[in-house]
Amino acid sequence: KYWDGQDCGECTWTERTCLIFPLLPLVLSPLLFVTLYWGANIQSESWGSWRYGMSAVAFLLLNHYQMTSLINHSNIAKGGAVTQVFEAFKFSENPWSLFNTDCAGFRDTTSSMLLKTIAPIVVLALLLLTYFGTHLLAALKFPRFQAWDRDTTMNVYFSLLFTFFAGIAAMSLDTFKCSNNPNHISTLVSDQSILCGSGDWWGLVAIAVVAVIIYLLGVGGLFSWVIIVAPNRFGLPGFRRRWGFLFYRFRPDVWWWGLLFLLKGIGTNVGYMLFHLGVEQMYFLMAILAVYSGLLTLFFPWRLRAVSALDLYTNLALLFVCSLMGCYSYARAEADESVKDGITIAIVVINMSPLFAAVLVAAHIMRYHLNPATKQDRFKALEQLSPSLTNFATADLAEKARVIEGLDEWARSYLFSALHIISAEFDGLSLKARLTSKSLLSKSSLSGSQHLGDHHSQDAVKAANQGSGDNHHNNNNNNNNEGYPNRTSGLIYV
Predict the structure, then answer these.
(1) Kindly report the CA angle at 362 between 369 and 85, in degrees rounded to 5?
(2) CB 317 within 8 A of CB 351
């Protein structure tokens, strides 16, 4: 038997065997890896396409319901319908919840914690088996088969960790989330039978410390470091293949937005450690969502504007859900049953509404990018505006200054943003920081690729030669970097 959170259930014979878990995940994982590898193999020039827009919509929906599942960790007595809805999206935070691991032998908290901790390592082992399997098939001259690239394979693995980082943070910090009881004894939120500070709890702490070191400090620190050094290495093809998942969703001048996703996932879980009262936890989470929403409104970081609007909507929906969750703490038992029912309905409706918003955004993306009439309208507008751009470019500086000073603040902001983009994409120069693969590689950038294990030095040299626009020959000596213009790759300034 197993405990589903409310009642005891009977394990089926398939659940008691290894057919469902772990055999089924082992069989399906190569199919998942192949799909992710195909998606990660698209060039950076296509990052603004509708396909990547749809990928961003799916990513936001998954992140929204990860946050929903994390809200369910709060120390608030929720309505039955709310708990059921929140539990339904537990898979977004913990994919293993799709399988009945209790019946597979992981009933106690210690074994369950060990399973969650080693899960990313098991995924890495399966991915490596798939990677070497492709090389074996390629060596055997399997028809129409190509060995996987190492950088793209790493992209597949680390993109999974980035996508589920909020859930990984929740797993790593779960042992430190305790709740107070009326008898003044603190118990573990995920298992009320374990007293915080007891011997069993300290055994879990040892596992949790390892998880924090590997995933939060190790993987989280690696992602942060890659985002920080990206301006100097984005021009390297190998770097983009390996770490593109950190950047393809966001605008080139807001490439660092992935850091906020990491902080958001960690901060949400830290609130459950710092505060034991459910209301305090909700207020802390609301503060994180409010700050994130404010920055989102200021930068609108996603490559597609509709996706930025969807991100804002999902965060506002979570803000409303958190505020309504706090009402459960103040509603009295019998007198306020009707109030509780109203709160429950509101929470369920608001929490599910991003699904419908995502459908509208997806339809807009498809129409904007695939409708021939929309494309024709853009080309007509470009044709009509080109003479004005030429006139502006050839005007003297005093006339340009007069026009700009006559604009309001918003118009000046849009104008200079457009000029920054044109300057960066056409000339490789800009006053504003912006990631681009079109700038030339410097000597330091080429040598810096070695720090990330970039074994595609020939690709980097080729990219540098193509970007330079000259006919300089290297005499087949890739170690000679003479003749490369001294420009940085990725982040460009005047």
Answers:
(1) 170
(2) yes
